[in-house]
Write a structure and sequence with these properties.
Length: about 450
């Protein structure tokens, strides 16, 4: 019997097990432009943990590769299928099971879209804070599996700071619970956080218990222009003292791209910093004074929420503006914040050497930079140069004490960089951990660890 026939029999007639190649092809990859992929032999649109358990039990026995998929918005090829693999998609598991306002927690199925939880929490005066730019379409399970970050994470921490508990289906098909719904618990080894950022390689997250918080007040927003990226980056380190709920940086290449699309008047600046304060708005004035010690050209702030949308437009438009210039490769290295300026200088030199435009923007307060390489669509030589440049950017970050990925994950495009920042012993331990949870290496094989 074929694997498809066997799974159909085991899962029963109600299961959504798709084998139509026109449909399975659309589940073969995420948003990473150059990661390898192949259509899976089938896609299970799971509705219950028990269905996933049945599928994994069979896959484990037959040693079939299983690729877990949230919303497929990833940028590292993490959800990319391989030939003869089974994709298990969580998109149908999109129920907010419970919001417990008194305990400030939500229990959700892993396929719930991030913004849907925040919108539901909003009605109760609460918020789910982690805000990846993809929050309108990425799943909470995917966010946990990649430990997603976002703009407010400079103050509130990335996804890992907001997960209390989870349900996981192991490669063996067993269903386990990790963590506790309580705010504090140190009873066991912290397997919960081992699974956060595990990119579908240790188990399939089916349910999450997440922190909600009292909704922060609308922030005051400040925008400041600087003559050089060096001065802006130096100012960013000084601005951390005001506990910003957002601290973003945009370089001149990106400002020019935005200007060419929607003129906002920033093209003269060498770089722009955007800051939000959701508590003490009056500190904006003090922050501008601080910026003056770093060659501030100009700065304005407002605590009117409508102005905020205008002021942060330059950051929101950064990536789409670069995308208008050609095909893009978006990186997401993380650096010590004091190394941002040096990093940008080195990437600018690389941009000239490679003859490729590279716009740099990112979460200055977290040191998480998104250098975005632009090259001509359909130009094979430029594409090859862009991929080489992408790798060189990671190496530059690592040479400055940085990390290959701040939020998008290692997936299938960055495994070769892990050893540059991880000792052989630690890699050996990671492989041993993988073996404990997934002895036959059926879950996303070849991803995350080298
Ligand atoms: C325009 C754009 C902007 C983005 N902005 C940000 C940003 O600001 N911050 C950020 O962190 N990321 C960002 N991303 C990347 C992406 O949205 C995140 O990595 C997101 O967390 C992925 O969620 P997903 O549901 O789409 O997961 P997928 O892409 O489907 O999967 C991502 C990884 O998680 C695994 N996985 C998914 N669901 C589960 C599960 N239930 N159990 C176990 N493993 C699972 C997959 O196997 C894969 O390895 C952006 C992407 C785009 C396209």
């Amino acid at each position: 019997m074929s694997h498809l026939a066997a799974l159909t029999k085991l899962l029963g007639p109600d299961a959504s097990l798709i084998s139509d190649p026109d449909i399975t092809a659309s589940y073969s990859r995420d948003q990473a432009p150059f990661a390898v992929s192949a259509p899976p032999f089938a896609v299970l649109l799971a509705r219950r943990a028990e269905e996933i358990s049945i599928a994994l039990k069979y896959a484990n026995k037959e040693k079939i590769s299983v690729v877990t998929r949230g919303a497929g918005s990833g940028l590292s090829g993490g959800a990319n299928a391989t030939a003869d693999s089974l994709v298990i998609s969580l998109e149908k598991m999109s129920q907010i099971i419970e919001i417990d306002a008194a305990n400030q927690i939500a229990r959700v199925q892993a396929g719930v879209i991030n913004i849907d939880l925040d919108n539901a929490a909003k009605e109760l005066g609460l918020a789910y804070l982690p805000d990846p730019a993809s929050r309108d379409w990425s799943s909470l399970g995917g966010n946990a599996a990649t430990n997603a970050g976002g703009m407010c994470c400079v103050k509130y921490g990335v996804t890992s700071a907001h997960v209390r508990a989870m349900q996981v289906v192991l490669a063996s098909g067993e269903i386990i619970e990790l963590g506790k719904a309580t705010k504090k618990s140190v009873t066991t080894y912290d397997f919960l956080h081992l699974f956060i950022g595990s990119e579908g390689t240790l188990g399939i997250i089916t349910e999450l218990t997440l922190n909600l918080v009292t909704r922060p007040a609308p922030p005051a927003t400040l925008i400041a222009t600087f003559p050089t990226i060096k001065s802006a980056a130096a100012a960013a380190t000084a601005l951390l003292q005001y506990r910003p709920s957002m601290l973003e940086i945009v370089d001149q290449t990106t400002l020019r791209a935005v200007e060419a699309w929607h003129p906002l008047g920033f093209e003269v600046a060498g770089a722009v910093l955007l800051m939000q304060l959701d508590e003490n708005h009056s500190l904006c004035e003090v922050a501008l004074e601080t910026c003056k010690s770093f060659d501030l050209i100009d700065g304005v702030y407002s605590d009117d929420p409508n102005d905020a949308a205008d002021l942060i437009r330059v950051r929101k438009m950064a990536y789409p503006a670069l995308e208008r210039m050609g095909a893009t490769l978006l990186d997401d290295v993380a650096l010590p914040i004091t190394k941002i300026a040096e990093f940008v200088e080195k990437v600018e030199a690389l941009s000239k050497r490679a003859n490729l435009a590279i716009g740099i923007f990112g979460h200055a307060g977290d040191g998480n930079m998104h250098p975005t390489i632009v090259h001509d669509h359909g130009d094979a030589a430029a594409t090859e140069r862009a991929q080489k440049t992408f790798n060189e950017i990671v190496e530059i970050a690592q040479s400055l004490g940085g990390s290959a990925s701040g939020e998008h994950g290692i997936g299938s495009i960055k495994a070769q960089f892990v050893a540059n920042e991880t000792s052989a012993k630690v890699i050996e331990l990671q492989r041993a951990v993988k073996k404990v949870f997934d002895p036959n290496s059926i879950l996303n094989p070849g991803k995350k660890i080298p």
